[in-house]
Amino acid sequence: MRVTKWSQVFRPNVESPIVPVWIAMEGLPIHLQDRRALFEISSLIGKPIKIDAATETLARPAVARVCIELDLTKEIPNKVWINCGSYGFAQPVLYENRPRYCGSCLHLGHSVEKCPKAHRELQPKVMPKEPSAVAPKAVTYTEKWIQKTTQTQAT
């Protein structure tokens, strides 16, 4: 189960393409690893939600991690351009456990190319059961009726 923001166009049979995803930026200069700078950089991709504890305390300066709201229907960049005064550089961005979103059936978990609703040939085929090659064993019931003898009949 996922909890998402309510909107006026809410439809219960459609999954939201906006999901929380952790992004990692390896090799980001240390002076750009404060909260304000990380939120500014990550806002180029999506809406920043939070920074992980190791990034917040600079316990792991090799990788900065930020959780963002990512819209899976939009172009998702592998790099962002960062201007630092008189110079700039392309910062690679890694997405951790980014889910796939199908624009055909509007569900998470697969792409349009692998959508069973869009591609009938991808739907699992249900084969009718074949009659068994071995006939079931016949069960016969034999009942024997025995007449009860009463006291008056015996005498």
List keywords for this structure.
single chain, 155 residues, two-stranded antiparallel sheet, alpha+beta
Number of E-state strands: 6
* Backbone shape: elongated
Main pleated sheet: 4 strands, antiparallel
- Strand-residue proportion: 15-25%
In DSSP terms (H or I, runs of 4 or more residues), the helix count works out at 3
Task: Bin the helical content.
Answer: 10-25%
Round the Cα radius of gyration to an integer and report it.
33 Å
Structure description:
- This protein is an alpha+beta fold and 155 residues long.
- Helices cover 10% and strands 25% of the residues.
- It contains three helices and six strands, in the order E-H-E-H-E-E-E-E-H.
- It has a four-stranded antiparallel sheet with strand order 2-3-1-6.
- The longest helix has 8 residues, at 35-42.
- The mean pLDDT is 80.
- InterPro entries: At4g02000-like.
